[in-house]
């Protein structure tokens, strides 16, 4: 068993995390953050773990740890959210938490007095929002597959325009399909509260989860189980507060739903501050204004969480308005928050001309996401201790990082073929169960 020792352990841990599903580039802020939340022995174990979900027996064989020390370290890491243990197919599977969704959310969903939350919050804020590095590593190269996608507030969709609203675009349908629900502390608002940037009166307890993720969060104390009715009430409250609904970017069995405000949400603040409009995958809708009914009050523009809705001088002949609203379609989320605030009912959501492709399952999202970010080789060859796997990670990773290759595999023509090959490969490796998640 080869353990990392000395001052380099956190640099090696940073490289490990950077090679998971979401990039986490190295800088001194990241170094300080890792030192704050990982004990050295915890970092040592994470370095030896596969990047993907792994059973305890395989983990023990790969890492070389004895049963008792391994269980003790895993327990410590899982309680902190630095490792996830998910109950799948009659056994627990363990996986190092990526930066998001993982380390950030699970760390800041905790409120126990065992951490200097002001210090940790400042480190997360400075790393994820105060510097461009983090968002640039994940969004500056035209990435199309994000962790979250916006779903609209259903009440403001133009029913005459939308003959069919797909179930995975409706919060009500998503909730009806689930059986297990949790609500926990919003990580972004928790950070903003300690950093001093929270100006809204939105409560902390909004973060929603479903299914397997909800089971993990409740079992590990990150969130409280709630009923289906309470989850519906949570959605209704977000409507009243004018929050953006951002959900796990999959069609089937989404894991989480965020209720985002413009002053706290790292995603929305990041879009406004650094200009990366692909941080969140937009909904398949855009607001449309009936100018005959619009009074030009500007409530819709003030409500827009990312300033995609603005007021301009009115040039409509005969209009009594001084200004009229316009929408920047290139950045608009399609959330419908603007329409919720329209008192004259002059605003509704209509379908975009071209539908945005949403991965069917989590397996597909992770494969496409890692392909775009150059880390897919770590999902395919999972044993950090194997020389063969190390060679294959280098060989395959180098090939798939080539821009022409990535563009081809992400294209409409080859994307389905690529995903089919990934599913077949997982099955050959005895991990076909992963394709069902």
Task: State the separation between the terminal residues, measured CA to CA.
Answer: 32 Å
Strand order of the largest sheet: 4-8-9-6-5-7
Inertia-based shape: globular
- Determine the mean pLDDT: 91
**How many DSSP H or I helices?**
20
Q: Pick out the low-confidence regions.
A: 1-5
Q: What is the helix content?
A: 40-55%
Structural class: alpha+beta
Radius of gyration: 22 Å
The total count of strands amounts to 13
The number of domains: 4
Largest sheet: 6 strands, antiparallel
Beta-strand fraction estimate: 5-15%
Would you kindly provide a brief summary of this structure?
By secondary structure, the chain is α+β, with helices and mostly antiparallel strands.
What's the arrangement of secondary structure elements?
Blueprint: H1 9-18, H2 28-37, H3 40-48, E1 54-55, H4 56-63, H5 67-80, E2 83-88, E3 91-96, H6 99-108, H7 117-130, H8 133-139, E4 148-151, H9 171-176, E5 181-185, H10 187-195, E6 205-210, H11 211-219, E7 223-226, H12 228-241, E8 244-248, E9 256-260, H13 266-274, E10 285-289, H14 299-303, E11 309-313, E12 323-327, H15 337-340, E13 347-351, H16 362-373, H17 376-380, H18 387-400, H19 403-410, H20 415-428
Antiparallel strand pairs: 1-3, 2-3, 4-8, 5-6, 5-7, 6-9, 8-9, 10-13, 11-12
Helix pairs in contact: 1-2, 1-3, 2-7, 6-10, 7-10
